[in-house]
Amino acid sequence: MPGLGRKRRVPVPRSPAAPGGQRQRADRGEDRVNEIASPRDVLTVLANADRIARAIHVLAGLNIADLLTGGPKTVAELASAAGADAPSLYRVLRCAACVGVFTEVRTETFALSPLAEGLRTDVTDSARDAVVMDGSEFFYRALGALDHTVRTGKTAFDHVFGMPIWPYLESNADSTGILDDAMEAINRRLGKRYLDRIDFGRFSRVADIGGGKGIFLSLLLERYPSCAGVLFERQAMVDPATSTIAANGLADRVTVVGGDFLTGPLPPGCDAYVLNMVLHDWYDEDAARILRQVRAAMGDTGGVLFLLEQVVAGLDTWDRAKLLDIDMLTVWGGRERARHEWDRLLSSAGFALANEPVAGEWTVLECVPR
């Protein structure tokens, strides 16, 4: 970090307004927390960040944010409603509040903060389910074995659980439910952003490959009533996807197909194909296999492939993809990719980029056959 030789302030969103001196006390507390006096202090905070993350995971799992939607509550009230131990809950809330996730408006009385609002389950852009997944056993244990991956180059999840994540999920319904809830929330949050960037109205039939329960495809078809859709997923997801599509009133416009996108065949006859947060789950060899299956299904009809992914920013630029890449490394056995890595992968499977994707954020890579 540049400038670490002088005092730095770590920006944390202000707490919501509290009566009288309560807000002033909260602000002064944040001011003290935000002062990091030296590079060693910065290093210590970063090295202890897993404590903060774990506190947020636990509070998300207890749905504390939902309990505070009506206003501040005492720790005793929160503990009673959440089925928690009040003294322990207080210490965890205090830890989270010192970085702006919740705010202690009076001693042992907490309220929502702007950051904590994202943990509510009743807001459209809730991050709660994604946070719960990040703190789940199958994620956290794998991340704890990062040193195994760094030393051996092998995926930590496989080492910890004795199998890759996909067969593990097939035999662990609770973990699958956590993942499905998280992906549904992420698709709802990012889906509208993608749809604002791509004009799907120029296509008549869109295939969503590895499209989960059909959340993104449903959003797409609701926006473009002249389009039809095909959802391709593993066989175990066919019934849940069919139910979601029907519940959204789109059963007459969507065909749900089960199969394996590594081996194909994928549905032909579509003029647009979408891979939404799919390829980052796979290393290049398997990612290229998926792309080749899409290329084969596309044929010579002049179709377009849209990858909804990230392009990693260069050098020391802040980029959340660099954090997510640790998940890919330890849990999924995949990778986030920089622009030159995308170019190489796409070329190996018979595609070329037709646009200039933005680096450093979730973006769109528009690909055409070579």
Terminus-to-terminus distance:
42 Å
Strand order of the largest sheet: 8-7-6-9-10-12-11
Summed up, the helix count is 18
Percent of residues in β-strands: 5-15%
- The sequence of SSEs as H and E is EHEHHHEHHEEHHHHHHHEHEHEEHEHHEE
Average per-residue pLDDT, rounded, comes to: 91
Q: How many separate structural domains?
A: 3
| CATH fold-level name of the largest domain | Rossmann fold
Structural class: alpha/beta
Give the key terms.
single chain; 370 residues; alpha/beta; Arc Repressor Mutant, subunit A; Rossmann fold; seven-stranded mixed beta sheet; three-stranded antiparallel beta sheet; globular; disordered N terminus; COMT-like
Topology, element by element:
Elements: E1 8-9, H1 21-34, E2 35-36, H2 39-47, H3 49-61, H4 64-67, E3 73-74, H5 75-82, H6 86-97, E4 103-106, E5 109-111, H7 114-117, H8 128-134, H9 137-143, H10 146-152, H11 156-161, H12 165-170, H13 173-197, E6 205-209, H14 215-223, E7 228-233, H15 238-247, E8 254-258, E9 272-276, H16 284-298, E10 304-310, H17 320-332, H18 339-348, E11 351-353, E12 362-369
Parallel strand pairs: 6-7, 6-9, 7-8, 9-10
Antiparallel strand pairs: 1-2, 3-5, 4-5, 10-12, 11-12
Helix pairs in contact: 3-6, 3-8, 5-6, 8-13, 9-17, 13-14
Describe the structure.
This protein has helices spanning 21-34, 39-47, 49-61, 64-67, 75-82, 86-97, 114-117, 128-134, 137-143, 146-152, 156-161, 165-170, 173-197, 215-223, 238-247, 284-298, 320-332, 339-348, and strands at residues 8-9, 35-36, 73-74, 103-106, 109-111, 205-209, 228-233, 254-258, 272-276, 304-310, 351-353, 362-369. It is of the alpha/beta class. It folds into three domains: 8-123, Winged helix-like DNA-binding domain superfamily/Winged helix DNA-binding domain (Arc Repressor Mutant, subunit A, Orthogonal Bundle); 124-188, no CATH class; 189-369, Vaccinia Virus protein VP39 (Rossmann fold, 3-Layer(aba) Sandwich). The strands form three sheets. The chain has a seven-stranded mixed beta sheet, sandwiched between helices. The radius of gyration is 23 Å and the shape is globular. One of its GO terms (molecular function) is O-methyltransferase activity. This is O-methyltransferase. Pfam families: Dimerisation, Methyltransf_2.
